[in-house]
Design brief:
Layout: H1 3-15, H2 18-25, H3 29-43, E1 48-51, E2 54-57, H4 59-80, E3 91-98, H5 102-116, E4 120-127, H6 133-138, E5 144-148, E6 157-170, E7 181-183, E8 192-194, H7 200-211, E9 218-221, H8 228-233, E10 239-242, H9 243-250, E11 255-260, E12 263-271, H10 278-289, E13 294-295
Parallel strand pairs: 3-4, 3-5, 7-11, 8-9
Antiparallel strand pairs: 1-2, 5-12, 6-10, 6-11, 6-12, 6-13
Helix pairs in contact: 1-2, 1-3, 1-4, 2-3, 5-10
Length: 300
């Protein structure tokens, strides 16, 4: 098995097809396609279903993604080792972040990390609602997972990085009291924009509303959190959003209100201390330096 072939495989996974993978790698489609075929012959398993011009992972392909990322991380670190001097860190770092924390604080941490460690390439993937952080870590998909806490991660370590403060964000023309803070018990009967019930944050919001004697009048349920901005600004309804994201909408005319009582949720990082690369350890150190990093594991 050649590392080049493994990189071709991951490029197809990350870019959704051979042509896009070849563009990302600065290679040709035929080279990528042949490399993936050669890898399949070496492994003795078909990694993709070829559906027209599309590429869909087989069950074997899905199982190989994690180990492949681990192989590439190790190979990249070895290739760049001669370029590293002193305490400089080089290599590749794979992290996963839920949509709730991907902008704040994870994107900010990635920016600060890259300024200090420019020789490290960071791949920031998405952690979906149904994903199992512990399984993804153990299978090698990533070294660090950032999400709301708590998470089921037996045998791993979880560290709290802080609290996310959620606020009400309403359309510009919504009828709200002219105060900066709004008691949930006094919340007007606004149509609400919500994520699916599988999201723990929605459960927490609805519990807070019900405790305040308010019912949930749902206007839209969306799996696409990025659509909430446009839905609010176009007047479809109000939603609850992390404060830093709400500030962006406030600058564009949306009404933002702090909540009484506050609605907060802890967020943090989950990892396996025994399988951290130098890049992973450096990123974790920077993340923990931004907070007091209370430990919640192992066996959380």
């Amino acid at each position: 098995m050649e590392i080049r072939q493994v990189r071709y495989f991951l490029a197809v996974v990350d870019n959704g097809g051979v042509v896009s993978a070849a563009t990302a790698l600065g290679s040709t489609s035929s080279s990528v396609s042949q490399g993936v075929r050669a890898l399949e012959r070496t492994l003795g398993a078909e990694l993709f279903h070829r559906v027209g011009r599309g590429m869909v992972l087989t069950s074997a392909g899905q199982s190989f993604v994690g180990p492949a990322r681990r192989v590439v991380r190790s190979a990249t670190a070895a290739e760049l080792a001669p370029l590293a001097s002193g305490t400089q860190v080089a290599g590749r770092l794979d992290i996963l972040a839920s949509a709730y924390v991907s902008v704040h604080p994870v994107a900010e941490l990635v920016g600060a990390f890259r300024r200090s460690y420019p020789a490290v390439t960071v791949r920031m993937g998405s952690l979906s609602e149904g994903d199992d952080p512990a399984a993804l870590l153990r299978q090698g998909h990533c070294e660090l997972v950032f999400s709301h806490l708590p998470v089921m991660a037996s045998g791993l370590t979880a560290r709290t990085l802080g609290q996310l403060d959620y606020v009400l964000v309403a359309p510009p023309d919504a009828e709200l009291p002219p105060t900066s803070r709004l008691a949930l018990a006094e919340l007007p009967d606004l149509p609400l924009l919500l994520v699916p019930r599988t999201a723990p944050m929605r459960v927490q919001i609805e519990e807070a509303l019900h405790a305040a004697g308010k019912r949930t009048r749902v206007a839209v349920v969306t799996h696409h959190r990025e659509s909430l901005d446009s839905l609010v600004l176009s007047g479809v309804g109000a939603t609850f959003m992390e404060r830093s994201s709400a500030a962006y909408l406030g600058e564009r005319g949306a009404q933002v209100r702090d909540l009484i009582p506050p609605v907060r949720r802890a967020h943090g990082v989950v990892y396996d201390p025994a399988h951290l690369s130098a890049a992973g350890a450096a990123f974790l150190e920077r993340a923990l330096a931004s907070t007091d990093g209370a430990e919640s594991g192992p066996d959380t």
